[in-house]
Amino acid sequence: MAKQATQDTVKYDASSIQVLKGLEAVRRRPGMYVGGTDTKALHHLVYEIVDNSIDEALAGRCDRIEVTIHEDNSVSVTDNGSGIPVAEHPVEKVSALELVHTTLHAGGKFDNAAYKVSGGLHGVGAAAVNALSEWMEVTVRRDGGIFFQRYERGIPTAPVKKIGKLAKGEPTGTTTRFKFDPTIFKEDAVYRFETLVNRFREMAFVTSGVFLKVRDERPSVPREMSFYFEGGVKSFVRYLNRNRKPLHDPIYVRKEVDNIDVEIAIQYTDGVAISEYAFANTIHTPDGGTHLTGVRTALTRVINSYARKNNFLKEKDSNFSSDDTREGVTVVVSVKHPDPQFESQTKVKLMNAEVAGIVSSIASEALTNYLEENPREAKRIIERCLTSSRARAAARKARELVMRKSALESMTLPGKLADCSERDPAKCELYIVEGDSAGGTAKQGRDRHFQAILPLRGKILNTERARLDKILANNEVKAMISALGTGIGESFDLSNLRYGRVIIMTDADVDGSHIRTLLLTFFFRYMPQLIEHGHLFIAQPPLYAVKAGKEVYYTYTEEEQRELLKKLEGKKYSVQRYKGLGEMNAQQLWETTMDPARRTLLQVTIEDAVVADRTFNMLMGSEVAPRRRFITTHASEVRNLDV
After folding, report:
1. Is 434 a catalytic residue?
2. Strands 451-456 and 429-434, how do they pair?
3. Is 591 a catalytic residue?
4. How far apart are the first and last CA of the chain?
5. pTM for the whole thing?
6. What's 215-244 look like in SS3?
7. Active site includes 373?
8. Topology at the third CATH level for domain 410-541+601-610
9. Residue of 98, 202, 324, 434 with catalytic role
10. Of residues 63, 276, 509, 583, which has the active-site annotation?
11. CATH placement of domain 232-399
12. 3.30.565.10, 1.10.10.10, 3.30.70.260, 3.40.50.1100: which CATH number matches 24-227?
């Protein structure tokens, strides 16, 4: 039966079509331009402006860039490039400076006349940042003068004006200062000095010869870091592997083919982690792309060819897989392309098809020459791949015992798992709990409808130092994999995840922190998709219970505890310090740590893969010296450590 229209039906006709003028589209849909309205998107504003300065450096017109976070949370970016043109545009009849900041798809990078290579492609960056800023001020030094214009929420407050003369010898360039619009970005969106430092360190590596300085004026003691590297991506690989034991010096090549500049550095270590970082026109492409595919193809092809030729692989032996040749490798590939094609405005993946072949050819030639000229190092690399191949075969057999191959052939869930009754994964939670005692309390205190409990006995294997076959022999790891349902390694499938939230719940003491770190290492190395898609969390149990009369207060940090005790001065109270989850009864654990209405969960994210990779390797890897340096450096920062 046809549905009869009612008076409440929304009318849709020509008048329903909206045309968004100027920068209104950016303000309405910020996610399309900077990826969202959270902290990550906030940093993207800075990257867009700095990318413009980097483009000046790539054009040979800039060798110094300074970024400052000011006390009022505004950010300024200053370079010594040629300065944005300020003269009137011949067609639009408005200053070019105003045009690029107020009009989408206006810029000087659509052809290769002014910029042979650039990261900015669509003329969107500066205009998008302007649209999403409460205010922006741009100062340009060029043509013998100093020019200025201010914007508020993307709209110029006055025409471009000349505010001074350029002194003799004073450098040209551009200074952009902006303050993000608090009505658009989330309340908890804040600039993180460490995030900017890590991003600009990468930029300095892949833009050799450029001085980059980052300064934060917000703390009582301002922080500042500067970067300058002449070794390019070779220096970057050495930096990444400084806490690992390399098997050889970095294999390095730089070559230009068809106006595409390719720079590659490769180094194998004694670890098992794969570290791959790809850049296109100095922009980090975290999802890789055709340039990274080219390097991977070359690695597999050349190593198999060398191993066959030199009888490391016999006739009956299978070729090494891509995973075999990549285990323990650190790769940095940087391409500079006159017309790069990215997957989106946020530039997470390079899509140019021709790049894969060019990069593969250059990498193959460099690898072949290195292996032929360095037989001792070549033998170490091949033996490493052989060990990896054997371990992977053993892991494959072990994985078949751990994973469900299909719905009909699924394994039974681990006996220690107390499952929930809800069958919609999006509504389910799995608490991974330290010890049988805490597990028992959690089972009693949980909501059985949607909360499952998996107790772990003791500390799991340190997965930073072990191969997959050894990991899969560990009973606690097997229990986790079975409970999650996703499988692991090559057969990992996120669509089979049985719980929308996976929550690590450990004691608030040193042992609990160690177990949490071991679990995070496992998830980061072998199930990173859980983190990337927002499924992994850390529970926050209270440190103290303070009883004053009939009232009970819970505090979660030392600072909270001090503030509470100040308020209770003059009153009688008792304090209980929780060293373990098992010290709480089921009702207390529910009220403080498991009740969705009152609990606090920390979501695990990876903002910077380079830092995460280096940190896990330093804390959990086989090299002792870097870990000792870290502990001695930060020991003085620990306060009130109750163990």
Report:
1. yes
2. parallel
3. no
4. 72
5. 0.66
6. EECCCCCCEEEEECCCCHHHHHHHHHCCCC
7. no
8. Rossmann fold (3.40.50)
9. 434
10. 509
11. 3.30.230.10
12. 3.30.565.10
